[in-house]
Amino acid sequence: MSRTSWKVMMITPFRLSALLVLLSFTGFPVGEKQFAAAEDGTQDYIIRGDGDLVDNGYGGDPGVFSGVNTFSRSLVRQLPVDRGWTYNSPVDKSIKNMFQSSKLRLEYLHWSIEGPDNVLLSSPILGVPDPTQPTTVFDRETGVPRGNGVALQYNDRSMDTNGMRGVLEFALPEGSLEWNVWGLFRNDSNRPTDSIYALQSNADIDDDLSVVVNFKKDGVLASNTNVFDVDYTVNMNTELVGTGVNYILDPFLPGDGFHVQPLFGFRVISLRERLSQVGIDSGDGLAVGRTSVIESKVENRVFGPTIGARAEYKNSRFSIGAEPKFTFGFNRNTNQVATDQLFVSTDPRIVTVDKNNEFSPTFQLTVYAKVNVNEHLRCFVGYDFLYIGQISRAYNVIDYNESPTSGEEATGTRVRQDNSDFTADGITAGIELVW
Fold this sequence. Notes:
mainly beta; ten-stranded antiparallel beta barrel; four-stranded mixed sheet; 3 helices; 27 strands
C-alpha cells in the first residue's frame, strides 16, 4: 500500500465525523423551540426533538431520536380559558364597565303628609251657622228631639310617617342611568269622639251630646240628620309609593367644583287612601238600632315624563347640591264610596265607583349634603318637598245626600269627583356605596 492511500484512509473518518457534526448544527436544528402566530391571540409552540413541556416552558435536553437520520416534530397550542360566549364582547364590556362604576344609595325618610284641614264629615245643616257646635237634633224617622248633637270636623293637617328609598345609579356613555324606588309606611289617622260621649252622663238630658251626620235632600240643603248616640269612630290610612328612571348627563367640565347636570326621565307615583266612618245608633226606643257605615277609598296613579337638573358643588371631602324635577303627570284615579245601613237597618250595602283622568303636574325639590368617608362610602342628610296637583282624597269624594224620590234612599250618598293639591315634605338620611 502506498503512503498516499494510507493517508487517505486515516484522514477520511475524521473528516466524515466533522461533516456530520457541522450538518447537525446547520441543516437539522433538532430540539429548537420556535413560535408561530395563531388565531384569537393564542400562540403555537413548534417543538423539534425530545423536549418536554414543563409549566408552559420547555425542559430536558433536545436531541435526535434513536435511528439514523430521524427526528420528531410536534405542535402544542396554548388557548385562553373559556369564559363564555359573551367574554370580551361589546355587551360584556358594557355591563362590566357599568357595574364597576355604579352607586347605591339607601335612605331613611321621615316625611309629613298633608292631611285634612277642617273638613266637615257631613253636609251643612239648614239654619245652623256652625254645625260643629251643639245644636238640637231630631230623630230622622219620627221628628222627635234627640237632644243636642254636633257634626265632626276632621283636622289632621300634618300626618308624620316614615319610609325608605333606594337609588341605584349606573355609569353610561356621556351620563349615568338612575333608578329609584321609594315608599312611605302606611299612616293611620283618626278623629277621637270620646270627649263628646263623655257628656252623656250629665243629669240634664239637654246636655247630652251625640254625633250627627246631616244629608242634603236631592242636592238641596236640609235639616236631615242621622243621630249616633252610642259611638262614632273615624279612621283614615294613607299610603304613598313611587318609582322612576332618570338619565343624568355628565358635567361639561369634569373634576371638583360647581356643576349643573341636566336630567330627564319617567316616574310613577301611587297615592292610596281609605276613610271609614262607623256610627252606632241605639234608636232611643223610637226606631230599631243600627250600625251605619260610610267608607270611601281613592287610588291615584300619577305618571309622566320628567325633566330637571342636578346642581352640585363637590370636592374631595364633601359635596352639597340641589335637584329640582318637574313631571308632566297624568292622574288615572279610581274613587269609591260604600254605604251600609245608611239610614235604616234594612238599607243594603251599596257601592258607587267613579274613574277619571286628570292632568296632574308634579314638582319635587331635593337638597342634600354628603361627606366622603372614603372612596367607597359616603354619608348624607337632606330635605325633600313633593307637590302633586289634582289628587283625590278620601275625605273629599263623599256626597252626603239623600234622594227620597228615587225609591232607594241609600243610593243618595254616593261618590263624587273632587280633586285638590297634595304636598309632602320631610328629612332624609342615609349612606351611599360607590364601586
